[in-house]
Amino acid sequence: MICGDTRSPLVVRIGEKGLIWVKSTSSRKPVHDAHLHIGVNAIDLLLRALKAPKSLEWKLSKVNEDVKVVIETVQCILILERITVSVGSLLGGTTPNLVPDATSAAADIRIVMGISADDSVRKTYKRLDDLQGVSFRGLRSIVSWICPSEDFVKLSLEVSRSVVRPRAAVNMRVGASDSRLFRKRGIPMAVAGLTRHGMGGADEHLMAEELV
């Protein structure tokens, strides 16, 4: 099936970067800043813990041939070649002269084709084993793609090349799409659509020529 979405008619997108949301919390004994020697700063502890998911950021080196073909088509889009980790929220503390007793943070991890979400979460847990007073849990996990060697993908690419331009290619998508809901149920799904211009702005538009 084809999921119609704005991007480019020159690209058949067979998957999205996997999305993993994680939350980490820490709690310690609260003390006054004048007595740091008898307390532990929960924010300091959590900042150490956040190095665990950040350590997952790396560029793919060894991948199977199917994945390699897709990566080679997106050499100019480096973010599609590597795992990325972004800490989106950090909460803790009330005033500068009190050691915070509790804090929490949430991070967004985006994985690429060939990387398992379970492996990524497991590696994070392993790096947190030695930190007392820190908890870590996954909030959301979405990993969605289909094999580029599937007949459905080959046919979709053939149609794009014959109808649009010969240089159409298979690629991955940075964001998510509804296609993940179908892939989750075993239905092959690719994303194709028109090029968006000014997305999110007052002048957002498409080119009518691409409808032909």
TrEMBL record:
Every copy of the Peptidase M20 dimerisation domain together lies at 14-130
* Record-linked Pfam families: M20_dimer
Its name, as the record gives it, is Peptidase M20 dimerisation domain-containing protein
Superkingdom as given in the UniProt entry: Eukaryota
Key word DNA-binding present: no
Stretch forming the signal peptide: none
InterPro entries linked to this entry = Bact_exopeptidase_dim_dom, Peptidase_M20_dimer, Peptidase_M20A
Write out the entry's keywords from A to Z: Hydrolase, Metal-binding
Q: Does the keyword Metal-binding apply?
A: yes
